[in-house]
Amino acid sequence: MGLSEDLYLPETAKALGITLRHLVTNLTHQSEMPTINYPDVKRPLNAPERYRGRHRLLKREDGTPRCVACMLCATACPAVCIHIEAEESPTKTIEKRPMKFDIDMLRCVFCGLCVEACPCDAIRMDTGKYELADTSRKSMIFDIDTLLNH
Amino acid sequence: MPKFTIDGKTLEVAPGTRVLEAALKHGIHIPHFCFHPALSAPANCRMCLVDVGLPKMKPDRTPELDAAGKPVIAMLPKLQTSCSTVVSEGMVVDTQGPRVKQGQHSVLEFILINHPLDCPICDKAGECMLQDNYFGWSREDSRIEPPDKIRKHKIVDLGPKIVLDTERCILCTRCIRFYDEVTKAPSLGIVNRGTFSELQVMPGRELNGTYDYNIVDICPVGALTSRDFRFRKRVWFLKKTAAICTHCATGCNMTVEEDEGRLWRQTPRLNPAVNGFWMCDAGRSAYHHTLDARRLTQPMRRGAGGTLEPASWNEALAFAAQKLRESGAGVAGFVSNRSTNEELFAFERLFAQALRGAPVASLETEVGILPLPPADGLLIRPDHNPNSRGVREIAASAGAWTGAEDLLSACAEKRIRTLLVMDPDLVGRSPNPAAAEHALASVENLIVIASHPSAATALAHVVLPGAAAQEKDGTYTRFDGRVQRSRAAIPPPGHARTELEILLGLAKMLGADFGWTSPRAAFTSLAQASKFFAGLTYDLIGPLGAVPAAAVAEQPASLV
Predict the structure, then answer these.
(1) Which residues make Cβ contacts (< 8 Å) with residue B44, sequence separation at least 6?
(2) How far apart are CA A54 and CA A146, in angstroms?
(3) pLDDT value of residue B204
(4) Are B330 and B418 in contact (CB under 8 A)?
(5) What DSSP string describes B427-445?
(6) Could you give the C-alpha distances from A10 to A16, A19, A20, B294, in angstroms and in order?
């Protein structure tokens, strides 16, 4: 180490100089800064087509859920985060429908196996929504209404 | 005994044995639908086709021999249904050849012509013979497009318990034969012809008998589903435990099916000496009693204000033990014929070792805890309790057991200060409920071990929450002496414990050590203490139970 480094103070002044230079550059060239003010400013999601975002349940033309509660998604789910309870559908041709369809988003690993397993194309992960944070565990368990009205 | 050759293996079977029976018994699987070991074989599904050859006979009825001295085999021109072909001397059967495969493959295609393929919403999916046979013997796409399939009736109620889907039905007639041959109450039939054939309940009748759910089990497809289980759970989630039904002295062997700690279904488990393939509907539905929301899940002690208040296990057991110790000669106990042999033995040991041989009694009642149809000579017996025989045998080997009447009157006369009750409903099951209630109310300290609330728990000073039958390990002694083991499928709810744990806890507080803690070791000890159970162990009991030497003469003939 040289003398100026041994003395410590000149080096400190040099470092502060660099900081000051960056501060001034940033203040004068704001439009070139890569940082955005998330969440006030959001970048468009240039996600690939098969990007797996938040789940949604699809509806039939008459507005009822497409899901027939066969529980194949719950069977395929490696995180055991899908809980379905079935009931008799009032429509005789449909027979079975979900009474409860909960996805525990805290457990979900976004693998997409539920989407692959579904024989009715009733569940998809194509919402492109990736912001999944909340303040309580309970609100992170999405029920059938949340999933249908994504 | 005729000898025959099947796939190159030579087997010797009893006369009259059908080829399919012999094959299944020796590990050769021939696909089938309509054949059921307990029913006759109409050979109407045609799935079990095999190639059959018979030795060529000379005019003098001796087999014709070839140059090598072996009998010449003449193959029958057509494939035969193995379920209806009786084995004969020298027969040769081929279950694997290309002709057989082609035959089975074509039959399966015919069966699937109008099948709706709604497996995703079919309750049978996962345990369906049609699915299994399709994956084993066909795996081909249908040549009939869904719009061309013949539509029939879906969701037909055959009574309050059974739902029929005529599209899924493959017309095997197993259910029809079940009513004709097992319950002897013909109820179902097939109407219309050809592809329009449909299963129907006889006009003006509905299925509301005692054994209806059995047709759901034997239905090889999802045509018959149970209202009780319909859409509740997919079968592949269910974990199965071998247990015993505790709602009558028959002790049907059953499989308790559970998922995530909740019971979903009970199905019969084959035991030729006890229940065959069957089980009554009441016993099958009895798991709802275990799911009862009013279950006792928390130890309770009567507080200063006279109401029952939650207590910790330590507090409740310590209080109970203290009262049992203090009351000197004024101690007595009630066991019941609903407890396991191990619990009865633990109770007996507790009173003999820790409580100076205080008297123990049991209600000798046939009243159970659930309403059951009357005895019918098929499975249901008049005694609706699983272990009346066990109580009798354990009482016989114990010392100070007394009559229930005497003990209740001693309570009413206040000669008993502390009473330990291990009966689900001592008041309701007693022949004179008013007198029993008065007797229990007269006791200074009433300690009740029970899984459900009853008149006795309402009067109790300490309530110790116990386990239901599906929640504990133990053995029951059937009316004919057969000892059968039931295993725990789920843990008791909340803070409840098994009766054996509770009795061992009390014994510890009272300073007694039995030298064992598990049901298995308890039974080993019981087998040493009692002449009746001598020589039996859990290993000998196995999945189908064991008959003690003393009861061999009483065994009924096999059901299957």
Answers:
(1) B34, B171, B172, B173
(2) 11
(3) 87
(4) yes
(5) HHHSSSHHHHHHHHHT-SE
(6) 10, 14, 15, 80
ipTM of the modeled complex: 0.84
Where do the H-state alpha helices sit in A37-143? 72-76, 113-117
If DSSP codes are grouped into helix, strand and coil, which group holds residue B518? coil
Higher pLDDT, A150 or B248: B248
CB B472, CB B422: distance < 8 Å:
no
Domain B300-554 CATH assignment equals 2.60.40.10 = no
Hey, what amino acid is at A146? T
Please name the amino acid found at residue A27: L
CA distance B370 to chain A (A): 27
Q: Tell if the CB–CB gap between B121 and A70 is shorter than 8 Å.
A: yes
Per-residue pLDDT band for A146 (boundaries 50, 70, 90) equals: very high
Among B47, B14, B40, smallest CA distance to B22 is for: B14
Residue B502 CA to residue B313 CA, distance in Å, equals 9
pLDDT of A5 reads 85
Residue B3's Cβ-side half-sphere holds a number of Cα atoms within 13 Å equal to 3
pTM, whole model, 2 decimals? 0.90
**Residue B308: predicted pLDDT:** 94
Angle subtended by helix axes B341-349 and B388-397, to nearest 10: 30
Rounded mean pLDDT, A41-52: 87
CB B447, CB B419: distance < 8 Å = yes
Q: What residues of chain A have any CB closer than 8 angstroms to a CB in chain B?
A: 68-72, 75, 86-88, 92-93, 95-96, 119-120
Suggest the residue from A82, A84, A94, A96 to mutate for an interface test with chain B (most B CBs closer than 10 A).
A96
Each domain of chain B, given as residue ranges in start order, spans: 3-106, 119-125+146-290, 300-554
- The bridge status of strand B49-55 relative to strand B92-94 is antiparallel
Q: How far is B119 from chain A (nearest CA, A)?
A: 9
Q: How far is A23 from chain B (nearest CA, A)?
A: 59
What average pLDDT does this structure show over A103-120? 96
pLDDT for the residue numbered B560? 55
- Residue B307 neighbours by CB under 8 Å, 6+ apart: none
- Note the pLDDT of residue B556: 79
CATH 3.40.228.10 is the classification of domain B3-106: no
pLDDT tens digits, one per residue of A20-29? 999 999 999 9
Q: Which CATH architecture has domain A56-148?
A: 2-Layer Sandwich (3.30)
The contacts of residue B531 (CB under 8 Å, 6+ apart) are B397, B550
CB nearest to B154's CB, from A68, A72, A92: A92
Its CATH class, for the domain covering B119-125+146-290, is: alpha beta
**pLDDT-flagged residues of chain B (< 50):** none
Task: Give B99's Cβ-side CA count (13 Å radius).
Answer: 12
| Residue B238 pLDDT | 97
